[in-house]
Specification:
Layout lengths: L6 E3 L2 H6 L3 H13 L4 H8 L3 H13 L3 E3 L10 E3 L4 E3 L6 H27 L6 H6 L11 H15 L27
Parallel strand pairs: 1-4
Antiparallel strand pairs: 2-3
């Protein structure tokens, strides 16, 4: 079964839509937990519901999110339209490259923030989650083709578990962050 792939972002307009850290935080939150109202998002991203609503509308205009029919008629939740996103090949266009750099920097900071939050709260986390968690780093000798293949294999293993795709979520499952960076040393 072919599963949808994350949206590859390479055009300037899409990158501009993700130029604001709150928009990236909102999109990542929806990807991690599924449809949520602006009020529910506000509690997680540390902003007001009205501010989140405004930024969610900007994301909707760029095709990243949309309203869903779940919920009451007063406030419908927002949902991510893709199963994830990634920055496309690094552009030669300086305008695109600067936006790509900003988004990548935000993603790196977010990975570090989530890892630090895990470490800060580990005393609150059940033992079975602590035993299953891991912070690994690997140094591998590969060609560019091998690296691309390795990343494709890892993506194929992880994709069925992506929050927007998984329908058979067992009891006890919870959104979990898996970050991966691969680049020449």
């Amino acid at each position: 079964m072919d599963l949808p792939v994350p949206r590859r972002i390479s055009d300037l307009e899409a990158l501009k839509a993700l130029a604001h850290p709150l928009r990236v935080a909102l999109l990542n939150h929806l990807l991690a937990v599924g449809p949520r109202t602006a009020s529910e998002c506000a509690a997680e991203v540390g902003s007001s519901a009205s501010n989140c609503s405004w930024h969610l509308r900007r994301l909707a205009k760029a095709g990243f999110v949309d309203r869903t029919d779940a919920g009451d008629a007063r406030e419908r939740p927002w949902r991510a339209l893709d199963v994830g996103y990634s920055v496309d090949a690094f552009s030669e266009d300086p305008a695109v490259r600067s936006r790509q750099d900003a988004l990548i920097a935000w993603q790196l900071n977010e990975d570090n923030r989530l890892a630090q939050r895990f470490l800060d709260r580990r005393h609150e986390i059940p033992r079975e989650w602590l035993d299953a968690a891991g912070l690994h780093g690997y140094a591998v000798n590969v060609t560019p083709e091998e690296l691309a293949g390795l990343l494709a294999v890892i993506d194929g293993v992880l994709r069925p578990y992506l929050v927007p795709l998984r329908t058979d979520v067992p009891d006890g499952a919870r959104p979990t962050h898996v970050g991966l960076r691969a680049f020449p040393r």
